[in-house]
Fold:
Amino acid sequence: MICEIPTGESLEVYRDSAKDKKGKNWLKVECWNPDAPSLYEDSEGPGTWETGWISESQVE
Structure:
């Protein structure tokens, strides 16, 4: 797990998807993680965009 996404939060959903061995669909997403250290030296504060996968059943 890279970050927790609060209920109602928006995600950027990519066109990439995958199906696991049990047939569950997963979506590639990106979300803002304000608690992560910034990846850029010139950033004004902490936070970065995180890319990962979420079960399609958890997304409306």
Q: What stands out?
A: The two ends are 20 Å apart (CA to CA). Strands lie at 12-19, 25-33, 48-55. Residues 12-58 form one domain. The mean pLDDT is 79.
